[in-house]
Structure formats: C-alpha cells, structure tokens
Amino acid sequence: MKQTIKQTVFFFFFFLFALTVFVACKKENKSLTTVEKQLSAREWQITSITRPKISNPAEDSSIAKNCSTDDRLTFGINGNSRSFQFKDNSAKCDTTIFQYDNGAWLLNSSQNNLQLNGAIRLQNWKILLLNDSILKVQWLDSISTSNKVLKTITLKNK
Predict the structure, then answer these.
(1) What CATH number does residue 143 fall under?
(2) pLDDT tens digits for 81-94?
(3) CA–CA separation, 151 vs 139, rounded Å?
(4) What pTM did the predictor assign?
C-alpha cells in the first residue's frame, strides 16, 4: 500500500513537472518563408553596384569600387527578431556609394520588398532576384534629398 501511494505521488509530480516544462517552452508559431530562409541561410558578398548612366539613363554604370568586393551582408533570425549587418570587411571603403549599417529587417506581405531599419538610416529595397546564389535588389538612394539615385546592388552567396 505504501509503495502504491509513493508511486502515485511520484507520477503525479512527474506529470506536473512535465506539463509545466511543456507549457513553459515557447514555440515558434510562424514557420519561415522561402525568402526568409534564403536570406538568412547564407552570407552575401557584393559583386556589383550600379546606377543609371547620367548621359544615357537606359544604361547602367558601375559605381562599385575594388574595396567593396569583400563587403558582407548577413541576415539573422532569432525567433521573431530579424537583424542584419552590412559590414565593410578588410579593404576599407568610403560610404558614399553604399552606407554600411546594421539593425532590424522585415519583409512586406508579398515577400518582394525588404526594409532595412538601420542604426544610420532606413532603406527600402525591392528584391529583383533571389535564389541560392544571387541576391539582386534595387533602391532609391536618397542620402541627399536633392539627389535621389536609383541604385542596384548584386550580391552572391559567399
């Protein structure tokens, strides 16, 4: 009889403990979209930065510098938190072509616009191409309100 009471009490507390642990664990309700997975699963490296030619806006002009080829962009996901870091790696560049920054990111509901809410400024990127090896975006760079320039940046999977 004593053994049965001890077993019952043991199983009761074991069940109570297991239930507490199960309920207390935070579950991720939302699974990641394909775009979120593609962005966050790799480190991206700049391959080109272009803008329309001043003399012929129908053509692109490369404005990337040699020092930008080692620059890296990473997208992090931790639960519901989204972070990005765009860093100037070993060959230091000036920031007149592209502003290095870090902060939070989010996608719009159609998964084709990426908002980078950085420590320095807010940028809205239109995703032109995203696959396992290429990320190509376009944005209206407006460092100066009088000189807004449409820029395209292409990055490859590092």
Answers:
(1) 2.40.128.540
(2) 999 998 877 666 66
(3) 6
(4) 0.72
